[in-house]
Amino acid sequence: MLIKSNNDSVSGGGRQSSRRSTAGGDQGGVRSYNERAVIQTLRTLANASRAEIARATQLTAQTVAVITDRLMRDGLVTTVGRKYGGLGQPSKQLALNADGAYSVGVKVGRRGVDVVAIDFVGDLTQDHHCDVVDPSSDNMFETVTSSIDKIRRGLGERWQRVTGIGIATPFNPEVWNDAWYDEPGAAGDATLYTWNHLEIGAHMHARFQRPTFVENDGTAAATAELVFGRGRQFDNFFYIYLGTALGGGIVLNGRSYRGTTSNAGDFALMPVAAEPGQPKALLNYVSHASLLSHLGGQGFPHLSTQDLADLFASQPAVFDTWLDTAADALVAPLLSVICLLDTQALVFGGRLPRILTDALARRTDRRIAAIADRRLRLPVCCVGEIDDNAPAFGAAMLPFYADFAPDRELL
Q: Does position 184 have pLDDT exceeding 50, yes or no?
């Protein structure tokens, strides 16, 4: 049974710029690593000649020729024309074959399930969303299963080329459930305690007979941003995921860092004193739920994401108190992140409308700059390029990482 344990590491990779090279080796016993290095290079460059691949991987021309021929026979690499110019014959350009492999990603959340299918170059081919009213384990199994079934029917014969299923889900949700002081109904949501025993990876593996990988949703979202978004600009960043609660993800040297218990970056429970009195967990001030609670008290209950965007566009002052409180609460935790990780960027993303996420990022940036020691190099504060499907996209990359990403342990 190929189910990713929570203590295994998953390294990042994807469409980054050529500033990161993936070096291979011509020694015996490293065939798998060298193949993955070639695939990674084609992800980075989009298309390249064999000579360009050899330069990027530091492999010999003969080794690259053998590997690319084998990958073309396997249907993973294809030719995309010739490049003219310069001396000699026009060089044949190679690229990943989008139809060569597929992957399915699942985001399991308290209020909904998102399922996507991506092709080998990372383009979305299928997606499905289902709202969740009852998050009990039995209902969650049924919802995820039926959602993946819809994706499978949409893929048709391409399902045979699905390499695996990645699942992004909150880890230990009962802990932040206890810390949630003002989420309507959350304090009594006993169903979240059953998630400790939610063996959804094993269940989906048995149901669909595909390798299954389970990841923290914050790390999965950061992975999606690494591969498809800000990772093309930054090798090192901290990702702030504003979901129903609050999550985080760490990217170091172009790789997702998961930590000992796969919860690296999960800073939602850091105590902050955004209001006078007893400090509360950060997620009480910075989360989709805390925003909805605030707006409900202002006479705006039950708002969808589009409702939030429309309300912010027409009455931005309604959000001022929440934005100020959230930005104030984020300062100390994010300064700790800056000091510890010396990261290039703080990337904000999640379920909130982009215009609102941007407003929070800018307010937080101003507050950090106002109190930070002038000798401290401050990272860029920015909004991610991936929408609220980031965890599902990140989850979909997990099987591709397992099968195709270069990993030094293979050496």
A: no
Residue 9: predicted pLDDT: 36
> What is the rounded CA–CA span in Å between residue 128 and residue 212?
19
pLDDT in tens, 270-305: 888 756 667 788 988 998 888 998 999 989 988 888
**191-205 pLDDT tens trace:** 655 665 567 888 899
pLDDT single digits (tens) 214-251: 988 888 888 888 888 898 889 899 999 998 888 899 99
The fold of the 100-219+391-400 domain, in CATH, is: Nucleotidyltransferase; domain 5 (3.30.420)
User: Which fold does the domain 235-385 belong to in CATH?
Assistant: Nucleotidyltransferase; domain 5 (3.30.420)
pTM of the model: 0.78
Judge if 100-219+391-400 and 235-385 fold alike in CATH terms: yes
Q: Which CATH architecture has domain 8-99?
A: Orthogonal Bundle (1.10)
Give me the mean pLDDT over the 94-109 stretch.
Answer: 93
Q: Per-domain residue ranges for the chain?
A: 8-99, 100-219+391-400, 235-385
